[in-house]
Amino acid sequence: MLMHDHEAFFPPENNHSIWRYLDFTKFVSLLETSQLYFPRADQFEDPYEGTWSKRGIEVLRDPRLNNGLPTQAVEQFINAIEIQRKQMFINCWYANEHESAAMWKLYLQTNEGVAIRSDSDTLTTILDKSKLNIGLSMVQYIDYDKTIIPFRNLFFPFVHKRLSFAHENELRAIIWSVDSANKPEMVGETVGLSIDINIQELIKSVYVAPTAPKWFGPLVQSITKRYGLGSPVICSSLYDRPAY
């Protein structure tokens, strides 16, 4: 179920389109398993993922500003983030009403990929049906040199990112494996976990990459039919020449 009204989460204020850009093999895997995959936070490329901001650490280490916290306690708190990065599992979406040229380039390894479009209300409904405790939040983009990420909740570092990533306009779902409701799902040192979803309910449409070869669109159409997905398949016109 979703953790509603949680202080560390910033849920979407209004319903809007969300997208996931996938290589073809990942798309087929999604259809085959009917599961959303949540990679572990320390597996992300961004080395700042789940860390406190530089300004926050400066304040935390300043005896004049940290209410006299012992130095050892401060350092233990800071170092604990490496443990917490291995306890958080995150599923990411691009939130925008339109497809993104940047996202196509960032998340596809080849031209043979797709983007699935859903909406934030649908994702909210689907995640609320899970037996796991899940947080849903828009990412807050800040200047890590000037802005303090609140220390009062361990989720806060995982819903903040640097301004350099603001183009991602990210909506993320977060599972904390230490939560008592989530512990039974964890097996050893897994680097990711999956939750069952209703694919038919989630996927509103499938967009074929704008640079995909002509034969790829019909293949995507065939695969969606094979798995009983009734959502329309749309060949992206992002790079079509304008017609006047």
What do you see in this structure?
- The protein has 244 residues and is α+β, with helices and mostly antiparallel strands.
- It has one domain.
- The protein has 8 helices and 11 strands.
- The strands form 3 sheets. Strands 5-8-3-1-4-10-11 form a 7-stranded mixed beta sheet, with helices on both faces. A two-stranded antiparallel sheet has the order 2-9. The protein has a two-stranded parallel ribbon with strand order 6-7.
- It is elongated and about 65 Å long.
Précis, in short:
The chain has 244 residues and is α+β, with helices and mostly antiparallel strands. Helices cover 25% and strands 23% of the residues.
Please supply descriptive tags for the structure shown above.
244 residues, alpha+beta, 7-stranded mixed β-sheet, 11 strands, 23% strand
Q: What topology emerges from the helices and strands here?
A:
Blueprint: E1 17-23, H1 24-33, E2 35-39, H2 54-61, H3 71-79, H4 81-84, E3 88-95, H5 101-107, E4 113-119, H6 120-128, E5 135-138, E6 140-142, E7 160-162, E8 170-176, E9 192-196, H7 199-202, E10 205-208, H8 216-226, E11 233-235
Parallel strand pairs: 6-7, 10-11
Antiparallel strand pairs: 1-3, 1-4, 2-9, 3-8, 4-10, 5-8
Mean pLDDT: 94
Beta-strand percentage range: 15-25%
Structural class: alpha+beta
The SSE string, one letter per element, is EHEHHHEHEHEEEEEHEHE
Shape: elongated
